[in-house]
């Protein structure tokens, strides 16, 4: 077999992104999302202030940054759930900045929420079916005539069953979503988003609360999505996962994009280390209460960054 | 005590026009609250639109179908006007705006400056607007008895009105049953649970909420028409108490169920009649008629409280579903 055939989609994307400069706001060879001068202020504080950002089509881009960096707010803006104070962006060449959340979703950009939104008093299957598109029975009058929509409903159910099996929720099919565990709800939300057959998925901390064994398979699913040609943008605090699956990493701090680069080298970036540890340089790390997961993650990141630097120096 | 008379009174309530009118209004409120999660605190306002729209159109010589359409159109316009500013906001705003709008509507139609159109304070006498509806009656003139129940065939509190009222209830039940099982009903249910989630899946949440608000209002309007047809149109009979009763009926029967509104209405009015008649007939005249009336309403209030505490899902609701809410 020729060498090109062996190249995985991941390698191909890595090659595409090789020439992209490792600095905030760098242009991508094939950008699906292009955002300019996006700002969002809450009272006096600026939650998001992104000068320029491009997201490569068909790649997995991780959006990382300390708590309160503005990642969720940026997601909300891009997906029409919040309105910016200024700025515009386009998706697939089409300006999106004025569209409602529903229209953004219909344009093919679908998101999940950091705080899961399972529809509790609906069954898992009903949740899934709700995600489907092109169901004429969702209109007031046709809904009264089942023959008009029964066929599509069957297709939708099959599509849902397939996804539920993929996400190991098939045994929960007829349970109320409200009876699922936190991790299962995350899975359901992601599966439900995929029911819309999006071209881009935006996942806000999809792994939070999902057990390690399942995380492995979830990571696999996300990579599968990419391999099928979907663009994935996800927020994640766990650097192992970010390194494991992402093709490109965008780092935010205090509302701005402070660094960009491939996952293997991003943590060596001076700006990233500052972003993560800046807030703690002058705190007493001997205080036990500070040793929450976030701080530990940050310390880990710092340690890794130093490791990389020593390696490079050597 | 005359138990037979009391029981006949009670059984008469089961199929009284007012019971059907309340059931229709509760079916509408069920589309709002049970299916979509919209908190409409002004269902009486929609009933008022239906009643006045129908009565005024009839007085101006419109045929029955056009008068019914006028009443429903008035309710639909009312719904759209209330919905435009509130449906994109959090749920509480709709509750506040509907209760206020229903009161504004009531004060408007009873204001003396509109006496020439709405009859002002006195309202519209039955004979001024019932004629065309009664003319449609296919039954022979006179009255008819079914066991102990004797009513006029076509006039006022008639068999004809019962047939139409309960016929509408039946249609309402079938429609709601269909809608609840349909993909359209599924979207509404999703909105009830979490509208942002539904929005994130590409559904036009605002449009769906508007559809539900208008649709439920239309059932309210029909209920309003049936409500006034046995007697007269009177603004103060279409006020907050009416809204409160419709809510009690819906919660009693079970929100988000198909038969809840009908069961709730029948139960509420039979029990109320039972208590009222029993108290009135107590030996020694312990309760006067007005006291009996007042006391039975106290009991309704207590029942509603007990219901919300011990059976929040209502009689027909699924307890499992309601308990999930607490998580
Ligand atoms: N609705 C709001 N009103 C006021 N301030 C807000 C609002 N939403 C977000 N913020 C502020 O904006 C900043 C960015 O918040 P955001 O939720 O985007 O952070 P994040 O990067 O997603 O953090 P995390 O990793 O903890 O989820 C925070 O300081 C937050 O307090
Ligand atoms: Mg966040």
Keywords:
A: alpha/beta; Rossmann fold; 4-stranded antiparallel beta sheet; 38% helix; B: ABC transporter involved in vitamin B12 uptake, BtuC; globular; binds adenosine-5'-triphosphate; binds magnesium ion; membrane (chain B); Branched-chain amino acid ABC transporter permease (chain B); transmembrane helix (chain B)
CATH class of chain B: Mainly Alpha
Main β sheet profile of chain A: 6 strands, mixed
Q: Low-confidence segments of chain B, ≥5 residues, pLDDT <50?
A: none
What is the C-alpha radius of gyration of chain A, as a whole number of Å? 21 Å
At the fourth level of CATH, the homologous superfamily of the largest domain in chain A is: P-loop containing nucleotide triphosphate hydrolases
Per CATH, what is the topology of chain B?
ABC transporter involved in vitamin B12 uptake, BtuC
Q: From the helix content, strand content and strand pairing of chain B, which structural class follows?
A: mainly alpha
Total number of helices of chain B: 16
Number of strands of chain B: 2
> What is the helix tally of chain A?
11
Strand neighbour order, sheet with most strands of chain A:
6-7-8-3-9-10
Distance from N terminus to C terminus of chain B (CA atoms, Å) equals 50 Å
Poorly predicted sequence stretches spanning 5 or more consecutive residues of chain A? 281-291
Shape of chain A: globular
Attached small molecules: adenosine-5'-triphosphate, magnesium ion
Report mean pLDDT of chain A, rounded to a whole number. 86
Instruction: Tell me the number of strands of chain A.
Output: 10
User: Total domains of chain A, how many?
Assistant: 2
